[in-house]
Fold Cell division protein FtsI/penicillin-binding protein 2.
Amino acid sequence: MQRVPRYALTGALLALAIAPLSACSPAAVPDPRPAAEALAGALATNDFSAVHVTGTGAADAATLLGTALEAFKDIPRTTTLLSVSMDPEPVDAKQPSATAVLKTVWDIDSTAKDWEYETTARLSFDAEADAWAVPFTPEMSVPGLETGQYVAYKTTKAARGEIRGADNAALVSNRAVVRIGINKPEVPGGKLEDSAMKLAKLVDIDPAVYAARVRAAGDKAFVEAIVLRDDFERTVTNEAVEAIPGTLVKPDVLPLAPTRSFARPILGVVGEATAEIVDQSKGTIKPGTLVGLSGVQAQYQKELAGSNGYTISTYSTDRKPVEKLFESPAVDGANLQLTMDLEYQDLAQKMVDGAGGTAALVAIRPSDGAVLAAASGPADAGLNTAMLGKFAPGSTFKVITALAMLRGGKTPTSTVKCPATTTVDGKSFKNYNGYPSAALGTIPLSEAIAQSCNTVFVNASTSMKAAQLTDAAGALGLAAEAATGAASFLGSVPSTSTGTELAANAIGQGVVEASALGMATVAASVAAGKTVSPHLVADPAPKAGTAPAKPLTAIEAKALKSMMAEVVDHGTLKDLRTLRPAVFGKSGTAEYDSERNAHAWVIAAQGDLAVAAFVKDGSGGAQTAGPLVKGFLTGLPK
């Protein structure tokens, strides 16, 4: 036998020893990262078509996870690959494996707090397919999730913040209500239409519309007709409701003011989010959510609402909780602090309710500008006339014109001419009907204010520029940017008026406009001896308004106060003369159409309180608005 060289045998044996190992050596196995990244993508989209799934098919894996995560199908999520590494000791020595670490983040709600966690997945190399395979298990997607289980979350509702006023009194808080409607399972056969129509008529809503809603609802639905305060028997008797087959009265609570009319245009209302609000929220507000629909309830919705919490758990097939996975506590809404005084507002509302028609009464504390009351008349149909009305202020504006005259060198004792009529650029101006003849001729400026001589202020306009009136209005808080913290308008005094328009502006007509809030601010500024910036919202503090070009000085305020005191002493507001402490003020009437219909105004101050009353259609400021001011000042709690 031929002898084989030793070195040749050694090389052959070595080749045999190496051959079976080289097929499974790490150098021949592809990088598992692409497969792990494909798995991350599949877990984020529930599409496993790009993953080599073993143990179950790609379609079955998608179905299983889709069922388990059904409650989360509309919630955005991301799954990213954090790392992937070869296992030093694979489960099967003949089948290399790798471990992927994945991070999943669910954007559950609008808060910055997300549900996030890490999971691991074992990948094994399928030599026959020459690809990395993923032996599928549900816990790759959610920690601890087993086949047959599902994941769900329960929302924990945040308590809505209250709206509080002076002395921390609750202006809006949770108050008992009842929801009255048709409970369809309880309606006898054939009585559905009849019951719906009868209930709608009883609670005074459109019968046809409500009946259509009832018909369209599911067979087991409760179809709400109306929500009433729990003292609803003052409006609808319980016996009348129960007499209609299938009706149901459900108790509940809602954020409400003390009464339906209490500061409603300012506070606003809370109700189910409209489709428009849901759309504009970009997913942060769900259908059926209670939100502020108007007033400060809507303006401060985010602060008042807080944010709901939620608990995420796994559940068994029989709907029993298995394990809590995550919890985000609810954050209750913050209270909104207003300066409004409960008793002052209630009294102001009673005053304007008695006035009839469009009316308003605003009370301000001069020392700090706090709005204590802002009531709008019942005829305003929910409009915030007190803080947003735009009307000619009439002769109450003469306080502003008088300030411009003081700044032009006049004093309260300066003599001025008060003719019965005067003409500017061909337009004739006259005093009001009934102006006292004894106050015509040459009189002190203070008497022109006391008796409200139109011609004095019309003539004064011919020697001043509109900007001087604008600056004077700003000094008294009227033309400044509103900074109340709520929807507001103070006044508008154009700086470009000339001729007859400027002349009319000087007596509060022309194109000047003011709200009751604005004119109360004028009185408050005189009382405070400085420019007052009114505010209704105390916390969060509103942004500061625009400072006037020339703020009111204490000397100017003293002169205005002395002249306004004469209005009460012997002028157009002498009906307020008996009030104590003493009152100073100014009345005003502003004709607004060719038929001489007129707005009635009175502004006044007593101690640390300034008031403005407005009635859209009145017979005269003192005669129509004066009693509102007197009733308010005498009716205040002592």
The first strand starts at residue 53 and ends at 54. The chain has three domains: 25-148, 163-328, 342-635.
